[in-house]
Each structure stands twice: as structure tokens, then as C-alpha cells.
Amino acid sequence: xxxxxxxxxxxxxxxxxxxxxxxxxxxxxxxxxxxxxxxxxxxxxxxxxxxxxxxxxxxxxxxxxxxxxxxxxxxxxxxxxxxxxxxxxxxxxxxxxxxxxxxxxxxxxxxxxxxxxxxxxxxxxxxxxxxxxxxxxxxxxxxxxxxxxxxxxxxxxxxxxxxxxxxxxxxxxxxxxxxxxxxxxxxxxxxxxxxxxxxxxxxxxxxxxxxxxxxxxxxxxxxxxxxxxxxxxxxxxxxxxxxxxxxxxxxxxxxxxxxxxxxxxxxxxxxxxxxxxxxxxxxxxxxxxxxxxxxxxxxxxxxxxxxxxxxxxxxxxxxxxxxxxxxxxxxxxxxxxxxxxxxxxxxxxxxxxxxxxxxxxxxxxxxxxxxxxxxxxxxxxxxxxxxxxxxxxxxxxxxxxxxxxxxxxxxxxxxxxxxxxxxxxxxxxxxxxxxxxxxxxxxxxxxxxxxxxxxxxxxxxxxxxxxxxxxxxxxxxxxxxxxxxxxxxxxxxxxxxxxxxxxxxxxxxxx
Length: 511
Known about the structure:
The protein is α/β, with parallel strands linked by helices and about 500 residues long. It has 2 domains: about 75-160 and about 170-220 and about 375-505, 3-Layer(aba) Sandwich (Rossmann fold); about 270-365, no CATH class. The chain has helices at about 10-20, 45-50, 70-75, 105-115, 145-150, 170-190, 205-220, 330-340, 375, 380-390, 400-410, 430-440, 460-465, 470-490; strands at about 25-30, 35-40, 85, 100-105, 120-125, 190-200, 225-230, 245-255, 265, 275, 280-285, 290, 305-310, 315, 325, 345-350, 350-360, 365, 370, 420-425, 445-450, 500-505. The strands form 6 sheets. Strands 3-22-4-21-20-5-6-8-7-19 form a 10-stranded mixed beta sheet, with helices on both faces. Strands 10-11-17-16 form a 4-stranded antiparallel beta sheet. Helix 4 (about 105-115) runs parallel beside helix 6, helix 6 (about 170-190) runs parallel beside helix 7 (about 205-220) and helix 11 (about 400-410) crosses helix 12. The radius of gyration is 28 Å and the shape is globular. It starts with 10 loop residues before the first helix and ends in a 7-residue tail after the last strand.
């Protein structure tokens, strides 16, 4: 069996290349620990170039930090010499498929696939482990015992003596979780295309911290939304305190918020009773006068100004009874829409009325909302039942519904493009199922990359009794069965295969 040799790039070296393009004179040479000469940065010269723009370490500033953050940042830049070994016997349509399933630690895998997919991934969805305070399966070397955390966080001294009255260790779990997520998200950003979008599922435990590290990694200006997903169809009657019925989904873009597509919106065509004489397009009228307590002249002084009617009459946003309102548009927007033919004046018994023209085809889409109901995108119980019917047993308690991920795919990908979809916490491979289903429905060419650690299943579980030994075994079988089912039900001619690769620690090219 041959192996794919995939030596990764050094993240720090790539950054030095970028700095060299901007400030070539700050690049120098020095010997490393092995005596080899390599390029380095004269930070003193770089500081002079950026004088006045550097945040000094001893000055207070807004930031999120935790014990282990520096190590987590360094970990994202450290190259790996691991390899990916092809596993043809577990693959489907190896010679023709463009889909990929990779078994292995996702941090190492993300580093490896940068060589092939840097700036090429259009869509990322992940459902990472929620921080329940348990040890993580992803055992990066920054996960530390309680005593080390207390020392690093300044709660005890080197001899283990308390420095605060009641040292807290639960912060260790936040630190471990953040350190686990940070390098993975940092590399994920490298993989995203300039018009790429990432969605991340999370619950209340780490939603605030996840938002902060995503602001740092992706940029606060690239935050698109916090989506609230109604994950259950009925509340828990035995809950103590509040019954949690939702999860969050954070959405960020790589560079441009316009990467989020509008949703199709079914309009009642009967409302569009007017026809444009020049183009024959159907439209409806909407008054430009905005009324109500929120539209008083005192509340919107910049929206209270005269408009010139066709006969030269000046019209203010005032009703015949004297009630003041304001215009829906600014003066600049009115002038622009007037040139576009989107303004219509109508003379009535009470005087001139001005309307916005809303054309039927342009009102067929709307911006996506931030509350997603289970009636629209399903819930965890429905997803578990579907998976049970597909695989013949209740193998996952709370999988994400494929309809939920299909909605995200519709917002961030296009069917006529070969967009790459990545999920590096693949689990039961819901994302792959969603890609196959959506491609069958809209004739799309999306292709997926699934990454899953071969985490052993509990020996007492239904999954183990059914013959599955790892989570990745379940994911691969789900893709096989869902592909067959979709093909049988739809007859769609789509790519239903996938190539399996397994992370290997050997550096040999052949075995």
C-alpha cells in the first residue's frame, strides 16, 4: 500500500515571507539550535516601522487570554511530518469520486490538507465537543492537570501554596477547550476561500468565549450572525431551572459579508397587481411615508424633508389630518431610486402620494433570519430517528439534522459551482449526508471533505453491538447507505463516492 507523503509548510516561515514583501530590510539571518543558518526578523527594525501602532505588553488593552494561549498559537504554526495513507478497500468509487473522508486527529489533518486546499474551501461547518468539563479525546499537549493550571494562572506558587483564598480549577476546562479550538480555527481560516463562510455549533458554556476567539481569528468585522436553533420540539418537563431548548450557531465570513446568500421567499403574486408599461414586470406599491410612534419627526429629523411631485408641488411626510411621519428613505436613496424607476407618484383627492415600486422577482428573496425553528430545519430527536432508520439502531443520541446543515449550505454555496465543503469534527457524517441530499435536489456539484478521529465507541453501546468499533466507522457507513438511499429515491446522477485516507505517523513513502 502506497502512502501520500505530505510534508506541511511552516506557518512561521510563510509569515516571514509576507513581512519580507512589505519590509525587506527587517529580514536578517541567524543560526538555529542545530547551527543551521535561517532567515529571521530584526524585531527592533520592525518596531521602528510600526512606531506608534504597537500595543505594549505592560499596557492594559481589550483581549482574551488564558493559560496556554501562546502554546496554542504556536501549535497552529508548527509543521507536521505525518502522512495520509490511502485506504482503497473502505472507499467507494475511488477512481472517479472527488469526495474525501479522513480518519485522524483533525489538527494534524488540517495542517496536511493546507498543501492542497489553501484558500479553496467555500464552506466549513463544525460541531465541536461542547465543554462539559470532561477530558477531551483530542489530547493535544497543552491539556494540563489541575496543579499545573493553578500554577500557570497564578492561583498557587511554585511550592503549591495558595495565593488566593479559594483557588478555582474549573477555569482549567475553559483554558483546555480554548487551547484545543484555537489552532484548529486558525488553520481553518487559512483553508477558507476569500468568499468562504464558516458555521460553528455551540451551547451556552462556551458561546461567549468562542465568539471572542473567532473575533480574534476571523476579525470582528467578519462576524455575520449568531443563529439560535430550536433543537427540541418539546421542552423537558423534568428540567431543574430552565429547560434548554436551543443551541447557537456562530457564522463568520473570510472577507465579505455578501458571501451570505439571500433565501428564497414565496410571495403571494396577487399582491403584485400593477404592471410596468415599459418592461411588463409586475409590481406592488408601498407608501414612502412611514407612520407610527417610531417614525415621529423628532425621532428621525434627517428623514423629514420635502419631495418634489411631478407638478412641482413640495410634499412632506404629513397625512391629510396633520399627523407627521417621516420618509422611509434618505434624500440620497430617493434620488437614486428615482433614477432607477423605483418611485411612483399618484395624484389623489387629498393630494400627491409617493410610493416605492417593489417588483415581484426582486421580492422573491429575503435576508436569512437568526432564529431557526425546528419546524423548518428539524430537531435532534428527528435527526436521531432518521439515523436509526438508516443504520438500524440508535447509535447517536443528539446528532444534528441534515436539514439544518442543508440550510447553511444554501446560504453559503451555489449549486453550479464545485464548492468544497469541510467538516473536521465529522461525527456521524451528517454534513456529508446533507451535501449528497442537496446535490440531488438542486443538481449541485458540491464535494465534501470529512475529518473524524477514530474514537472508540463504548463497548456497552448499541453501536458496538451492531459491529461498529469507532465513530469514523459509523460515519463511513452512513455515507454509503445515505448515498444508496438518495440514488434510489431521486435517481440523481451525483458523485456518491468517497476516498478514505488514514493519518499515519510513518514518514515512509512506501510500505
